[in-house]
Structures are given as structure tokens and as C-alpha cells.
Design a protein that fits this description.
Distance between the termini: 10 Å
Radius of gyration: 18 Å
Shape: elongated
Number of strands: 6
């Protein structure tokens, strides 16, 4: 069974109900899980209530206000990737987690990605991966954004293929694969279709991003 490399840095349990982005409660300004949330989580994930509480408590122990800051995320990324690549990719991967674009990652956002990357359908995974490519989070990918991402992830790509084509060529070719209607923008649907349709570069790029999150058990 695949496990989430980033999530496993801090967590060893999976909570599924929070993938629905339920709001956490608070008491005296501190984040808390309501009893009904714990019960629902236990039922839907197969975990007992103690494991649900432990997973939440681990997150809050590290992030007392219930939010992971970019600095904390940077440290986590450095444990999942070589330092040079982590520093270039952290801002792109952060976007996958930060669903509401508020500059922080809360528990529900964190565990939603943990669940999707571990158990989600291909379409769900690719919908989240799309946010890595959509640099300004406006719902589409431009050629400029593709070029920026390829520049930042080129080290990861080249680690598997030292004879890889030049950055600009990969960016232009991948964008052409995805932009089927040639309107200069790649939508989420076009992105998913290219990756699911086994377009060579699209598939390679998507898999490389997924590799950041998921690895097989040894």
C-alpha cells in the first residue's frame, strides 16, 4: 500500500472525514475536535477514537494555533527531498495543501491531501497535482507558468534522466500536449485528460510530482 512521504514525516494515522474540509472547533482560542467529529472520523476511517485524537494532537503539538506556517512546511519538505530540490519545489507543493489560499495549512487541509495521495482516485490526485502547475492559482496553466515550474523541478527530472531535453523544450512540448484547444491556457480538465491519456511529457511530469508524496512500502 502506498504511503504519503510528506505526511509520514509527522503522522502515522489517516483521518478521512476531514477530507470533506469540516471546520475545526475552538476552545479558548485553541483548535479542538468536537466529539461528533471524532465519532464520525472513527467510523469513516476505521481508526479508533484514540487514534483520531492522537493524529490531531500531534498536529496541534507542532502547530498550537492549528495552522502550519510556510517555514514549518519548508522543514518538512527538506526531509522528503534533497535540500536543493526542496527549496525550489516547496512553494509549488505548498499550494496543493493550501486549498483556501490563506497562506497556512490547517489540519483538515493537511489530512485531505494525505488521504487523496494515499487512497484517492486518479482524477482526484491529478486535480490536486494541477495546483502545482497553476502557479498563480487562477484555475488555468499558462506557458509562462509551465516554464517556471519546469525550471524549478528540472533537477528532479534530470536525476532520473541525465540526457533529458532542455528546460524550454520540455515546457513548450508539455504545454502543447495539454492545451488541446490551443487557446493559450490549460484547464484542469485538459490537464487531467493529457495525463490520463498517456501523453508522454504530461504523464512524466505528473508522476514526478506524485513521487514527492507517495512511495511504496519497503
Amino acid at each position: 500500500m502506498p504511503v504519503s512521504r510528506l505526511a509520514s514525516v509527522q503522522f502515522h494515522t489517516l483521518t478521512r472525514e476531514l477530507a470533506r474540509e469540516e471546520k475545526m472547533g475552538s476552545k479558548n482560542g485553541k483548535p479542538v475536535l468536537r466529539d461528533e467529529d471524532i465519532a464520525a472520523l472513527s467510523k469513516s476511517s476505521g481508526l479508533d477514537e484514540a487514534q483520531v485524537k492522537e493524529s490531531f494532537d500531534l498536529f496541534v503539538a507542532e502547530h498550537p494555533n492549528g495552522k502550519m506556517k510556510p517555514k514549518d512546511f519548508r522543514e518538512m519538505m527538506s526531509k522528503a527531498l534533497p535540500k536543493k530540490d526542496a527549496s525550489k519545489m516547496e512553494k509549488h507543493v505548498f499550494r496543493i495543501y493550501d486549498a483556501n489560499n490563506d497562506g497556512y495549512i490547517d489540519f483538515s487541509e493537511f489530512m485531505m491531501i494525505f488521504f487523496i495521495m494515499s487512497e484517492g482516485a486518479p482524477e482526484e490526485v491529478l486535480t490536486k497535482i494541477f495546483r502545482v502547475f497553476d502557479v498563480n492559482s487562477d484555475g488555468s496553466i499558462t506557458q509562462k507558468e509551465m516554464t517556471k515550474l519546469i525550471k524549478d523541478m528540472y533537477g528532479l527530472l534530470q536525476s532520473e534522466d541525465p540526457n533529458l531535453a532542455a528546460k524550454d523544450l520540455i515546457a513548450k512540448s508539455a504545454f502543447a500536449e495539454m492545451d488541446k484547444d490551443q487557446d493559450g491556457k490549460v484547464t484542469t480538465d485538459e490537464f487531467i485528460a493529457a495525463c490520463m491519456g498517456q501523453e508522454d511529457l504530461s504523464k512524466m511530469l505528473a508522476l514526478k510530482v506524485i513521487d514527492i508524496f507517495v512511495e511504496d512500502d519497503a
